[in-house]
Amino acid sequence: MRIRHWVRVVRWYLRELTGEAEYDRHCERHRRHHPLAPVPTRREYQVLRTRHQEARTHSRCC
């Protein structure tokens, strides 16, 4: 039981670290707010996210 717990913790951490969980959360929000629109692919999501970050240059430190 203890090993399963640690496996879940490590899996959660890696998903958060790599951004995979963020994409999943985005898909859930997208389906909830736009049920008839197709969900963007992971690649499309990354492009949109990058454009959004670049448009908000004032929030970056460097």
From TrEMBL:
Superkingdom of origin: Bacteria
One Pfam family of this chain: Sel_put
InterPro entries given in the database record: Sel_put
Protein name per the record: CstA-like transporter-associated (Seleno)protein
Originating species: Streptomyces iakyrus
